[in-house]
């Protein structure tokens, strides 16, 4: 279960997902990233002193998508394994606003790193899923395109 | 079998599915409710239809038909959501729900009122523990241990 004090709300094609803010190593505006004009899952790169970090594009169903309207990228991971996810918008939410509960998606995880989600914000009948940083990193790296 | 055993009744719930029905102990069911906001879960199998917010918990909603190899169902106007208590050994918050094709029906069953169904007439899947016949209709009894293994591999 996510246990951070704050969450980032990522808007991806009108769907909202939360990410523990402590998992993020950087949040960048689109205009400071280098666009990747290929056909793969990487839509942009962040240059660093040690190299470059890929930012992946997915749609609301987490299928590869080169949606044009993204404005920001959230990067997570450590060392040379930092990866990013682009989003239409990224907002910081305080924990006091949220009722976050454990949630385990059923069935086989999409990657060997586990499920994409490990908790959920439940507000009445509305549910916003909380991304598991390790599951997300594994999922994004599995999309390839960084060679 | 003794007369006392014959008279031992189990309060159960018949859950209509598309093309068949499940029979489950009423004690396993927390609530039957009308469908409401269903939120998709990316990366999940097709039989996981989504998640609902119920009693401050995030409850996954499954298509049992999809789990046994048939086409996964979707919410229809006649659908109901049957919320189950967590399977033995799981967290007390691990409720799950099955999409019912229509309103579930209570059944009070005993050895005298049911017959064992011919195994060749029930789906060949470990998710079904047995099939029974009640008043000429076939009802499938889910194997909750197998469900747990499928839910939490």
Automatic annotation (TrEMBL), chain A:
Gene Ontology BP terms: chemotaxis; signal transduction
SUPFAM superfamilies from the UniProt entry: CheW-like
Protein name per the record: CheW-like domain-containing protein
Organism per entry: Candidatus Muproteobacteria bacterium RBG_16_60_9
TrEMBL record, chain B:
Pfam families (UniProt xref): CheW
GO BP: chemotaxis; signal transduction
UniProt domain CheW-like: residue ranges: 9-153
Domain of life according to the entry: Bacteria
InterPro entries: CheW-like_dom_sf, CheW-lke_dom
Protein name: CheW-like domain-containing protein
């Amino acid at each position: 279960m996510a246990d951070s004090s704050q969450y980032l709300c990522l808007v991806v094609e009108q769907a909202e997902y939360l990410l523990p803010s402590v998992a993020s190593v950087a949040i960048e505006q689109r205009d400071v990233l280098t666009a990747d004009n290929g056909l793969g899952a990487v839509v942009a790169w962040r240059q660093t002193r040690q190299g470059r970090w890929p930012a992946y594009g997915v749609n609301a169903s987490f299928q590869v998508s080169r949606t044009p309207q993204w404005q920001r990228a959230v990067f997570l991971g450590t060392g040379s394994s930092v990866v990013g996810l682009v989003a239409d918008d990224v907002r910081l939410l305080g924990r006091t606003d949220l009722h976050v509960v454990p949630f385990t998606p059923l069935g086989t995880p999409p990657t060997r790193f586990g499920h994409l989600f490990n908790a959920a914000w439940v507000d009445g009948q509305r549910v916003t899923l909380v991304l598991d940083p390790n599951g997300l990193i594994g999922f994004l790296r599995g999309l390839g395109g960084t060679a | 079998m003794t007369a006392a055993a014959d008279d031992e009744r189990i309060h159960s719930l018949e859950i209509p599915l598309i093309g068949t029905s499940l029979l489950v102990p009423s004690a396993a069911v927390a609530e039957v409710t009308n469908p409401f906001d269903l939120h998709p879960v990316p990366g999940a199998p097709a039989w996981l239809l989504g998640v609902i917010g119920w009693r401050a918990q995030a409850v996954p909603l499954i298509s049992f038909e999809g789990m046994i190899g048939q086409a996964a169902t979707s919410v229809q106007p006649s659908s109901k959501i049957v919320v189950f208590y967590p399977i033995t050994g799981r967290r007390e918050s691990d409720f799950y729900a099955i999409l019912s094709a229509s309103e579930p029906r209570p059944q009070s069953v005993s050895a005298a009122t049911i017959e064992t169904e011919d195994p060749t007439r029930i789906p060949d899947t470990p998710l079904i523990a047995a099939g029974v016949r009640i008043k000429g209709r076939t009802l499938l009894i889910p194997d909750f241990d197998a469900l747990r293994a499928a839910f939490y591999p």
